[in-house]
Amino acid sequence: QVQLVESGGGLVQPGGSLRLSCAASGSIFSINTMGWYRQAPGKQRELVARITSSGSTNYADSVKGRFTISRDNAKNTVYLQMSSLKPEDTAVYYCNADLRTRQWIRSRDYWGQGTQVTVSS
Q1: What phi, psi does 120 have (nearest 5°)?
Q2: Which of 4, 92, 99, 116 has its CA 20 to 30 A from that of 13?
Q3: Neighbouring C-beta atoms of residue 66, cutoff 10 Å
Q4: What is the pLDDT of residues 61-94, one digit of tens each?
Q5: CA-based diameter of the chain, in Å?
């Protein structure tokens, strides 16, 4: 059993900042890539940022220079520091992890339940 639990969402004014956290727990052998996706009303879920186990990152063009993804491998936790937030960043943000529960089992994606981020004055 694996759980990804997000925290840190909320309401913030344009130009403000928020920090999202996502902790993976349960029967985990290893975690490859961890990432954040978001889904706004009426839109498809999209990649925001992701980070490999070695620390390589990539970002959606729309958040480059404003968002920073990081992870603590010892805590199986990934973070998303969001700055200079815009109303168009409003969405439900989902944590994702590509992980193995056993050494001999192929890795697969796991998802958190989502946390709402609303950017509004």
Answers
A1: -160, 150
A2: 4
A3: 15
A4: 999 999 999 999 999 999 999 999 999 999 999 9
A5: 50
